[in-house]
From TrEMBL:
SMART domains: CBD_II. This is CBM2 domain-containing protein. Residues 1-24 form the signal peptide. The keyword Hydrolase applies. Keywords: Carbohydrate metabolism, Glycosidase, Hydrolase, Polysaccharide degradation, Signal. The keyword Cell wall biogenesis/degradation does not apply.
Length: 239
């Protein structure tokens, strides 16, 4: 009987201690969303090939962790990317139609998943970006015949990523005795040792990875060495 009473007394005491102990303090939960992104403006990234814009950074009681970016489509808002939380938030999208206007909106978020009120829309023009300089390769093949004549074929290859338009090839003969007598597939001119070949109307455009072949007949005095450098539209080509 004493054992039963002791067990019952222990249970009552334990229950009283649990009932009288202070309740655990609830954990702090972040429920405050970041502020609405404002100041959205076009053309914040110079020479970006596409649509680019920036905005003023949002604020939060803890910290903004990033931004979701949406583009307006006929069926509604489409999430097209995210931007990090920086002092100068910005976003750029490529693969768009150049000079077409696109509508974007931005929403800030924090670590707890709270989302801000979505921003007002901004109109952004997709721009072509900085022009890419041409890149080229030259293959210069010359054949000497008799004592003073030679024939040369020049292959111009566009090794860049954009079409090469209205091209001009320039180079200098190594000796003053080398002279062009006639040429084909280009408009050839010579001033001293300096040679210029300009495109014909039918081969004015060289697409990326494509080539054109031009050539000329010439004469030489004692030797017919190959020119050391070639330029297309002022850019040095590889040989």
């Amino acid at each position: 009987m004493r054992i039963v009473l002791r067990a019952l007394l222990s249970a009552v005491v334990a229950a009283l201690m649990i009932a009288l102990s202070p309740a655990a303090a609830p954990a702090n939960v972040d429920t405050s969303p970041p502020s609405k992104p404002t100041g959205l403006r076009d053309n914040c990234i110079a020479d970006f090939p596409g649509a680019a814009f920036c905005w003023n950074p949002s604020t939060d009681d803890v910290a903004v962790t990033g931004y979701d970016v949406y583009r307006q489509t006929p069926s509604g808002l489409l999430k097209v990317g995210t931007a990090p939380a920086t002092s100068f938030p910005l976003f750029g999208e490529t693969g768009l139609v150049t000079y077409q206007t696109y509508i974007y909106r931005v929403q800030a978020k924090d670590a707890a998943g709270n989302l801000s009120v979505i921003s007002d829309p901004v109109s952004v023009v997709a721009r072509p970006g900085m022009p890419v300089p041409p890149s080229c390769r030259i293959e210069y093949t010359t054949t000497t015949f008799n004592s003073t004549g030679f024939f040369t074929q020049v292959k111009i290859t566009n090794t860049g990523g954009i079409p090469m338009n209205s091209w001009t090839l320039t180079f200098a003969f190594p000796t003053t005795g080398q002279q062009i007598t006639s040429g084909f597939s280009a408009m050839w001119t010579q001033n001293g040792v300096n040679v210029t070949a300009r495109n014909m109307p039918w081969n004015a455009v060289i697409q990326p990875t494509s080539s054109v072949y031009i050539g000329f007949y010439g004469s030489h005095a004692n030797a017919n060495p190959v020119p050391a450098q070639f330029r297309v539209n002022g850019v040095l080509c590889t040989v």
